[in-house]
Amino acid sequence: MMQTNDLHNRRRFIKTVAVTSAYSALLGKGWNHVLAAEVSLHSASTTGTLRLSISKFPALQVESGSIRLGLNPIRGNPPGGPMPNGPYYPIIINRGPNNTFFGLNSRCSHQLCAVDVMDPSSNEITCPCHGSGYAIDGKKIRGPATQSLSKYATAFDGNDLLTIQIPGLGYSVTATDVQPGAGPGARLKMQFAALRNVGYEIQWRASLEKEPVIVPFSRTADGGLNETVFTATTNTTAGIFIERQGEIGFCTVAVRVAEI
Ligand code: FES
Predict the structure, then answer these.
(1) Which atom of ligand 1 is nearest to the CA of 131?
(2) Is the C-beta atom of 130 inside 6 A of ligand 1?
(3) Exposed, middle or buried: residue 124 (CB in 10 Å: 0-12, 13-18, 19+)?
(4) What CATH number is given for 56-159 in this structure?
(5) What is the 110 CA–ligand 1 centroid distance (Å)?
(6) Considering only Cβ atoms within 10 Å of each terminal Cβ, which end of the chain, N or C, has fewer?
């Protein structure tokens, strides 16, 4: 039950949750490697920003490097697949000359297969289904596809941080006290729209300079805090419970992303 003397802290806490509600942990191959990317929510829009640390991706440290990132798995084989097994097509990221980067939607316009990463020897992307070809920037160079790959806006800070704007990736989170305070027994309920086969985790940082830590959660208000990944089998509203880590800080719902 919420007590009035906790209202101030509660309001402050919820505000920080709202500002930083959508994050993505890039966990590398196998979905369990080091945090390397995150998504932040644009206020008043559903566009999310994928933030990627280039140093975590050897392929992107050289010209003509290419990776494919999935927010959910893909399934199927040519000629009818692969296709996303969830709401998102993988994102292709290509590196060109002079610190240029291209973020592309892997959806082939021909019959909707997910295209492969770029071949560094030719700087071409080939669709595994019927051979359509695309240039480093997604432009169609060979059919049967009739259209280019769609591009995402990208920006590189010249050092290590690559940001990619992904429409439809932003989402909102609400947090309410179940038991007020902080530490053992102080529980917070996090609610957010969870999409099918997208893995979410809860992260906490005491301040923005700190690396986030993964917070275990329970699916019930008084259950054991023994889960770290929430994956829904259908689109749903997730309601999970965490122990509040401190009176102030940043609690985020992260989308897990993997190289696929
Ligand atoms: S789906 Fe046919 S070429 Fe890509």
Answers:
(1) 3
(2) yes
(3) middle
(4) 2.102.10.10
(5) 5
(6) N
Q: Which of 193, 187, 177, 179 is nearest to 215 (CA)?
A: 187
Check whether 121 has a pLDDT greater than 60: yes
With a CB cutoff of 8 Å and minimum separation 6, the contacts of 122 are none
E strands, 71-181, are: 74-75, 83-84, 91-95, 101-105, 125-126, 133-134, 140-142, 151-152, 154-156, 161-166, 173-177
Residue range 81-97, pLDDT digits in tens:
999 999 899 999 999 99
Overall pTM > 0.85: no
Ligand 1 atom with the shortest distance to the CA of 108? 4
- Numbers of helices and strands, H then E, in the chain: 1, 22
Q: Name the residue among 97, 85, 87, 95 with its Cα closest to residue 52.
A: 95
Residue 10: in which H helix or E strand, if any? Answer: helix 7-19
**What is the per-residue burial (b if ≥16 Cβ within 10 Å, else e) of 180-210?**
bebeeebbbebebebbebbbbbbbbbeeeee
Q: How confident is the model over 47-81, as pLDDT tens digits?
A: 777 778 888 788 999 999 999 988 888 999 999 99
Closest C-alpha to ligand 1, atom 3? 130
Annotated domain spans of the chain: 4-37+171-259, 56-159
